[in-house]
Each structure stands twice: as structure tokens, then as C-alpha cells.
Amino acid sequence: MRTKVKTKKMLLAGNWVLSNKWIDVVNPQNNSLIAKVPSASREEMLLAIEKADEAFKKTKTWSTHERIEILTKAADYMADNAEKYAKTISLEGSKTITEARGEVKRAIQTIKISAEEARRINGETISFDQREGSENRLGYYYRFPIGVVAAITPFNDPLNLVAHKIGPAIASGNAIVVKPASVTPLSALLLAEAFVEAGLPKGFLSVITGSGREVGDVLVTHPKIKMVSFTGGLETGEKIAHQAGLKKVNMELGSNSPVIVLGDANIDEAVSASVSGAFSAVGQNCIGVQRIFVEKDMYDPFLKKFITEADKLVVGDKMDERTDVGPLINEKEARRVEDWVEEALDQGAKLQLGGKREGAYYEPTVLTEVPESAKIAKEEIFGPVVLITPVNDLSEAIDRSNDVNFGLQAGIFTNDINKAFYTIKNIEVGGIIVNDSSDYRIDAMPFGGIKGSGLGREGVRSAIESMTEPKVVCFNLDARF
Questions:
Q1: Distance between CA atoms of 314 and 244, rounded to whole angstroms?
Q2: What DSSP element (H or E) covers 176?
Q3: How many other C-beta atoms are found inside a 10 Å radius of the C-beta of residue 473?
Q4: What digits encode the pLDDT tens for the residues 58-84?
Q5: Are residues 198 and 329 in the same domain?
């Protein structure tokens, strides 16, 4: 079946516009062309930023109830068109149709949570009379929006990760300019469509499609941008941090998440959750399971069960509801994963399952005895590969979990509350999931990591705090009254 090629417009300050250049959007499953989107120019990005700044300055009295109404209407529009959103996510990206439907549900919830949190952007009173001589002073602080937010989003969650930028920005009264991943721009444009239909004032949202080299640098460095919210790789994150200058920076930069399985754990639950965590979204998931450390008495039965369950996964057509694992985002990434696995095998690792590539597809792969010198043991594979390693005890598992330049999330399986709390205290991550894999998140929770995993926190409420600043108000009252 041939897919009809659509020419899509980008949203520039509330207006749908074309451009002189185009970017091809292809289906990674078969490399077929599915759409063309504008390849924006530097001048178009500059215009989007200027219009965002103008809109923000004109609408400083934008009421809370109006923002709530827009967010609610946008969520309703998404719900009414949920299958259209899901098919777009699956078609342009790596997710199966089942996974895509799950992402749509989460994105709707993210926008709904943003509407709820808009009514809770509160301050508090301050006891100025705690200082001698300030007995007649009274005051408080409140939070105000910072202005124009820049958002740069990745391909792996092309709808919900964009929602995590736009939702909090609108909830807190900011304007936002989004540059989505060039390989998956269609989902972001669909989200913009929801906000246009909801009646968002022009200028408050632009979704500018184009190359990072052409428009990304302009977005990051522009003086009217007050915050850069970036989700992506460590190398790009470091570059943005150096470019941004004196503005807020919020970054989620991935990980190679560890899971610890102790001898007292429920082995069936640990296997099931870890297989799902390792291979959902083809392993292209910042909190996906990459390294599993299993207490030695549990190691052999865990490994056997894990291989058995992973071998049941169906690799195939993304649009088939029976499929568990689709292709990576392109063949280049599949080749990179293949190279990393081959390097580990050359250094002495053992292949227990998978290890084969066909085009952009790479089979769910299990490695054991991976030397610590291998790239795959230290870096983020961002593919369907998991390393399973025996350890003597919890202390060794935590030490090996921490021995990388990442710290986003981790999981531990144990029925010993003391060991769980020991892990909570000593593991170096932004989130620890007890009796589940690292691959668990709700959209309301603070989300982010330490070390090379990023700066700041996402999650709607946390993002709103980053996109606002406190202003202190102090009254010096006349003591004569």
C-alpha cells in the first residue's frame, strides 16, 4: 500500500505557513516518503521569536481561567482525534501502533495536568517581622512568567515530550517556540493544531520545523529567549549549555539506566518488567532498562527466564497490533547499535539472544559478560540491547550502577524494606523505582537526573516552577494607624 505524501505547513506565530525549502519525513520501516514539512530559514525563526515576545508583552494580564480553558479545549481536541494522533506517531517514528496509542493518552493527560496546575501557581506570605525593626512590615511573594521559552524536542516521544514543553509554558502564561526533531515533526504540528483550535492567542506558540544548524542556534542564543528547555543527547546538551548564555536552561539528557534484582525478589515480576523496560519503543527511551545487575543466587534462573520472555517478542510491522518491536528511527542508528554490540563481542562479551540487523530493524538483544571497557557498558545505547551481569551483593550492584556519567532513573526488585531504603539513599539518580524497572513515569512527577543526565526537572509542576520566577512584595506600613 502506498502512503499519500502530504505537504504540511508549520505554525509561525499562530499562522500556518509554507517555506522555500522542504524536509522529507519518511517512515523508518520502509524508508517511504510520507510528508514534506518546511525547512525554516533563520529569518523565519527570528520572526517567530519576535512575535512571541510581542504576544507575551501584550498579554501580561492573561487570566488564569482563560489559560485553563485553552488547555482544556486542546486536550479535548486531542481526545477527539486520538487515533489520528496515534497513527501519525507510529508512521513517522519507531513506535508500534499500540505504543503510540499509549503515548497519545499520556500527552492528553499532560495537557490536562497543565490545566490543573495553572490554578495552583501560588506564592506565600513572608514574616518580615522576624527581623528586629521590621515589626510594621508585611508582605508576600508571587510567581510571574519569564517570557519566551525555547523548546527543542527529540524523536522518541514526538507528541508527549512536546506536550511537556507547551503545556507548562501556556499554563504559566509564557510564550513558547518549539523546534521538533526533524525526523518526527508531524506529531508536534498536530499538537499545535490542537492549540490553534482551542483559541490560543496568536504569537504564543510557534512550531518551527528545520535543521538545527539553520534555526536551532538562533533559537538558543537569541536574547529574547529567557529559557531553553531541551530533551536529547548529552553532546548536544553540552553545546546548548555553552551557547545559551545568561538564561535558564532545563535539560533531560538520557541515561543507561540500571535495574538491580536481589535474591529475595519476585523473579517473574522482575523479568516481566525488565523485558518491557528494555525493549519497549525499541529501546529508544531515556529511562529504558540497559544494565541489569542480578544477585548471584538469582542470576541463572533470571537470565534463563529473561531470554525466554524476550524471545517471544514479535518484531515487525509497526501498524500491526500484534507487533511488539518496530524499527529504530533510521538505518544509521541501527548500524550504530550493531557496531556497539560487535565492539562488545570483540572484547569478550557473550551474545545470549538477538544481535542481528535488517535495515532499520535490530533484534532484541541480550549480552552477558560485557567488559566495563566496552562503550555499551558506559554510554547510552538507545536501542534494543540489554546487559545482564551477576553481582555478589547489593553494595556491588549500587557501586556498578553508579560507575557511569549518568543518573536519570533506576529500578530495584526486593522484598526487604531496609535494602530498598539503603538503595534509595546511595544510588546516584533522580528517581528510584522500587519493585519495578527504571522505565516507569507519570507525567505529574518531577522528572530529571544528575551528572550527565541533565539539569533541572520536568513534570508539569516542576516545569512551571522553572518557567516562572518569584517576585517579593513588601509593605512598610504606617505605624500611626
A1: 43
A2: strand 175-179
A3: 12
A4: 986 799 999 999 999 999 999 999 999
A5: no
Find all residues with CB under 8 Å of 8, minimum gap 6, and list them.
Answer: 35, 36, 37, 38, 185, 186, 189
Contacts of residues 195-198 at CB distance under 8 Å and 24 or more positions apart, as own/partner, are 195/70, 195/74, 195/166, 195/170, 196/11, 196/14, 196/16, 197/73, 197/74, 197/77, 198/69, 198/70, 198/71, 198/72, 198/73, 198/74, 198/77
- Mean pLDDT over the full length of the chain: 96
Task: Establish if 436 belongs to a structural domain.
Answer: yes
pLDDT tens-digit readout, 207-235: 999 998 899 999 999 999 999 999 999 99
201 φ, ψ (degrees, to nearest 5)? -55, 140
- Counting Cβ atoms within 10 Å, is residue 392 exposed (0-12), middle (13-18) or buried (19+)? exposed
Q: What is the CATH number of the domain that holds 186?
A: 3.40.605.10
Domain membership of residue 477 (yes or no) is no
Does 449 fall in a domain? no
- With beta carbons less than 8 A apart as the criterion, state whether 381 and 255 touch: no
Taking each helix axis from N to C end, the angle separating 186-197 and 160-171, rounded to the nearest 10 degrees, works out to: 30
Active site residues: 252, 286
- The angle subtended at Cα 135 by Cα 133 and Cα 139, nearest 5°, is 115
Q: Summarize pLDDT for 23-34 with one digit per residue, the tens.
A: 999 999 999 999
Residue 348 domain boundaries: 258-442
CB atoms near residue 308 (< 10 Å): 12
pTM equals 0.95
Identify whether 414 is part of a domain: yes
Are the C-beta atoms of residues 243 and 220 closer than 8 Å to each other?
Answer: yes
Sheet (strand 248-252) strand order: 15-17, 10-12, 205-207, 175-179, 148-152, 225-231, 248-252, 454-455
Cell numbers linked to 47: 520572526
Q: How many domains, the chain?
A: 2
Residue 337 contacts residue 328 (beta carbons within 8 Å): yes
For 9-28, b/e burial (b = at least 16 CB within 10 A) is bbbbbbeebebeeebebbbb
Sheet holding 124-126, edge to edge: 124-126, 137-145, 468-476
| Residue 154 pLDDT greater than 60, yes or no | yes
Q: Are residues 248 and 388 in the same domain?
A: no
Helix, strand, or coil (residue 38): strand
Per residue in 82-101, pLDDT (tens digit) is 999 999 999 999 999 999 99
Percent of the chain past pLDDT 70, that is, above it, reads 98
- Structure-derived torsion over alpha carbons of residues 305, 308, 311, 314, reported in degrees to the nearest 10: -90
